[in-house]
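LOG
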Amino acid sequence: MEDFLLKSNLSLLNSGSPTYLHPATASFSAIDLSITHPTLYLDFCWQSDSDLHGSDHYPIVITTDTPSPSFSKRTWKLHKADWAAFSHQAALELCTDTICSAEDPIQQFTDVVINIANNSIPKSKPNTKKCNTIWCNEDCKAAIKTRNKALKRVEKHLTQYNIENYRVIRAQTRRVIKTSKRDSWRTYVSKINSRTSIK
């Protein structure tokens, strides 16, 4: 792998932290690799999550200081538009002479129309809501907490008993979460009727 990276002129983001816990021996290794182009190497910070989240692989968290684009687009509220103001401003600003004399008439026309729309048509607020994990009840939280404690014991004291104990607790936690998800879905579906909003 090292030869491949050198020949391909690629960089490895991994810090050396383990990314995998062998379920049978509880041995740690870093088998999950994050590879990038050298020009991007300094733009990212690599680390593995301390919680396995019930898996054999530690989640890899790659962060950057570069602000990420907003995925919630604001939309025009056309039903609340002031069309009289829109028409009046359009009649004043969308002059043939002004548009045609511009260096880029199409861009000029677009900019003017968008500016008029911004002044007379309101937009929706950006969606900043976070998804609530409604199935994660107190039983789930308690099971996850117990699982994390068992994992910490394995990391500190690598004994066969701690390994087996962790595997049992992890399986129990998976069952608790699966049951909670199923019950939550059934409860949600049971509340849907002919009067339920399409949203």
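LOG (cont.) second protein
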Amino acid sequence: MKPLLFLHGWAQSSRVWYQQKQVFTGAHYLNLPGHGGAKDVPADAWVEHLTAQLPDEPCMLVGWSLGGSIAMEIARRFPGRIAGLALIGSTPCFRAAHDWPHGCDEPTFATFKDASTSDSARALTRFFALMLHGDGLARSAYNQLAQQAVDKEHPATAAGLAAGLELLVRLDLRCALLAMQMPVLLVHGEQDAIVAVEAGRWLARHIPGAQAHYLDACGHVPFLSQPEKLNTLIKKWWQQ
């Protein structure tokens, strides 16, 4: 099988995949620049920097949220490096616009900006809670996930958060999707409060041959709240 690699989302780290690491033991788990102890890199260099860390053999790339946007950009610019994409809670265009009603609205984006500029653990905690909105988790389950998934020893740097936010605003992959000639898996929570499920449905209509799965009672982080289901979907996609 092809090498398997995971890319996390904004303000988190590769630690969020802790329930996947128990199943996909030989996979690669990268940290975005300025996240999880990785060095800071200017936003303009993120894609090249991450592509340089991919295996020599074309890999199956799993991207969540911002990691999904970056995964699509890597596939667009370096198609020979990618054998397949799994996009979790991802969107081709993060911000809402006059021609893109499925993007992040201003109140939600303000949560991102607050978390990136306040240098406050409380702001990032609020953002983590927003990611799990819609999962219906008990407080004890939420606390356990937060304890296991958040790398408190290596928080994202201010520069890393700012660069990631810049990419969330800048990247627009809507015109690149029809050219994707690879197996694509789409997984989206029906109750996602950060990336609307309509963005996932739009991706499914515009990526040729994409396999789409929409999970009920699920927010932005199905790999945390519904790990068995998500792991099964990834395994079938990876082994096809």
